[in-house]
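Retro notes, item 3 of 5
We never archived the inputs for the 2-acetamido-2-deoxy-beta-D-glucopyranose complex last cycle. Fixing that now. Sequence and ligand:
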Amino acid sequence: MTHIRKTTEYLRHCYCTGAKRMAPLITSCAVVLLFTWSFFSWSSALYSSIREDTAAAVTKKLQYLLEPPVFAEVIGRRGENVTLPCILRTKPKNYKVKWTKVEPERVGLENIVMIFNANAFKPYGLLGRRASLRRAHEMDASLLLRHLELDDGGQYRCELINGIEDENVVITLRIEGVVFPYQSKHGRYRFTYPEAKEACVEQDGRLASYDQLYRAWTEGLDWCNAGWLHDGTVHYPIIRPRPVCGGELLPGIRSYGPKDKSHDRFDAFCFTSNNNGSVFYISGSLSYDQAEHACRARGSELALVGQLYAAWRFQNYDRCDGGWLKDGSVRFPISNPRNRCGGIAEAGVRTFGFPDKMTHLYGAYCYR
Ligand SMILES: *[C@@H]1O[C@H](CO)[C@@H](O)[C@H](O)[C@H]1NC(C)=O
Ligand SMILES: *[C@@H]1O[C@H](CO)[C@@H](O)[C@H](O)[C@H]1NC(C)=O
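Structure as it came back at the time:
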């Protein structure tokens, strides 16, 4: 430890004096650096072995549960079934296993999904209704979750309780999906937080989490309007920095931080995933009402914005024709960008906003 402290002092000294009187000092600096480097590597080796010991003492080694978990992240789309792995390596004489969903927003409230022991099990809550135990072998404590829903993403804890030393492992469940920005038909920045939340649900989505927005940004989402996220913060993702979108900072997620949920107004970032239906297009120069009738006549409904995004994301839906959606907006999905379809280089769902419903210019996107 003393060696390390000395080394940094040497270095600091070297930098400071070096800046004042450059030329003659540079060589002596190099010498000092060489010397101290050998000290440093030796003492850091010593230091890291000490640190490993203390780390082992602090985060105790698991005795009963397999760590690291077989896989720490499990991925599924809405409607799919997944297995959250948890394997016992030794079985204590008496034990229970408790599966909970870790809900950061509901601190203190335990969101139990399932409790079981060698002989019996009991599911809890809404998640429990879709949960069961895999029991592939006698050491298997893995949880099966059926028919995934949009809200299921997050962290799950498998906790072994034996009355002496309880242990747990945490598995992340990620719902694979797509994030879409959503604006009110009355214009930009009209939603309070509860209104944004409601708007996403109406479009077959949920307010996106920060992680979902971040992933969407890595996948190409560049959007110059700020929107609510599920945790009550407001952000927007920028890939091509420009003065009108927060200046020439590096690309990234721009943050307004937490905002007043009942008074501040922004757009929304919604998240949706796969669905069990399909989107199809009816061509024509239809008004909104005619579009609605056209879908009904084919046993379907005008599509929701989330449904169009899911078709674009999961079925590569590509159509160069503007069509009415249920919310009164007109959009079209582009998977293979080409000049005559909007002229934007990136794939995406394009929007014409909310035209007058009497406009006879567009077809209809229906969902069945
Ligand atoms: C999920 O599991 C249920 C019941 O075990 C089964 O009926 C269903 O087909 C499964 N769904 C998928 C997508 O595998
Ligand atoms: C299709 O998905 C919706 C929404 O996720 C669900 O309510 C419905 O039961 C599903 N239908 C079938 C046939 O799986």
